[in-house]
Amino acid sequence: MRTYLECIACFVRQSLEASQFVTDDTEIHERVMRDVLRELQGMDFSMSSPEMAQIIQRLIRSHTGIADPYATVKKQSNEIALGLYPRLEKIVNESKNPFVDVLRLAIAGNIIDFGVNHNIDLNLVEETIESALHAPMPETAIGELQKEIERAKTILYLADNAGEIVFDRLLIERLPLERLTVAVRGAPVLNDATMPDAWVAGLPDIVEVIDNGSDAPGTFLADCSEDFLQRFENADLILAKGQGNYETLSDVEHNIFFLLKIKCAVVARNTGLATGSFALIHSNQAGAQAAEEAHASAAL
């Protein structure tokens, strides 16, 4: 999925927020913003948004000397999610349709995204959980996913954000763990989940967890490790969480189910779903949207 003009405002906001997270030095803030604006001036809009965000976040880390500017908010996100986890387990255990509700809750965790919204607190997460439990879900896509899970010999689960990865455990525990591998980012970027966040969620205790070797806030295959690429290519089924994974993989030919909350107008337009929707999208549908997008871009 390509980048759009609307994405520029998000890049600028993210850059200032990240630099302010780690220092009060306004001279550093200014240097960061000037360099980011120079990068944006010459950016290639055929790139996905996470590819550009990767470049910008590397600039920020270089200027501030901080390897993980979002470390504090990631810790807070994990704490919020862990505090909610017993209640979420109870909801699923008492559900009349636990698979559907566990999908809803896993997608609800996608609200914990500091790349899109820096005003995230317990109230917002609880409101999102309540909305998710009553949100309509695509029955056809759910049925397809259940069939693919039964059929697949190898399943790869692509995690997204810290905090959200705790919600993911609800779904992961109900998948065939002996056929499942979970992948996190290879290095800190934004508030995306890395291996320490997987340990906080307790995932390595129940399933194989790997990293993708990349510091892009999505799954930018050209930047991933050889080991991850082999896992990706050999997977019969891929579950991809969040907007970053959708933006980087929606035009990749593979058997992928995207689970995400639609949080911006650009992704809403690409998916054909309203902003705020809880989405489960099969790659055959995403591929058609990508082809339509490419055709529209070529006509401009």
Helix-strand blueprint:
Elements: H1 5-22, H2 26-41, H3 49-64, H4 71-93, H5 98-108, H6 122-133, H7 139-151, E1 155-158, H8 164-172, E2 180-184, H9 195-200, E3 208-211, H10 226-234, E4 237-241, H11 242-249, E5 256-261, H12 265-271, E6 278-282, H13 283-299
Parallel strand pairs: 1-2, 1-4, 2-3, 4-5
Antiparallel strand pairs: 5-6
Helix pairs in contact: 1-2, 1-3, 2-3, 4-5, 4-8, 5-6, 5-8
Assess the beta-strand content as a share of residues: 5-15%
Helix share, percent: 55-70%
Write the H/E string, N to C. HHHHHHHEHEHEHEHEHEH
Sketch the major β-sheet: 6 strands, mixed
Q: Report the structural category.
A: alpha/beta
**Backbone shape:** globular
Distance between the termini: 16 Å
Rounded to an integer in angstroms, the radius of gyration calculated over CA atoms is 18 Å
Query: How much is the average pLDDT?
Result: 91
Sheet with the most strands: spatial strand order: 3-2-1-4-5-6
Low-confidence stretches: 287-300
Number of helices: 13
Structure summary, number of beta strands: 6
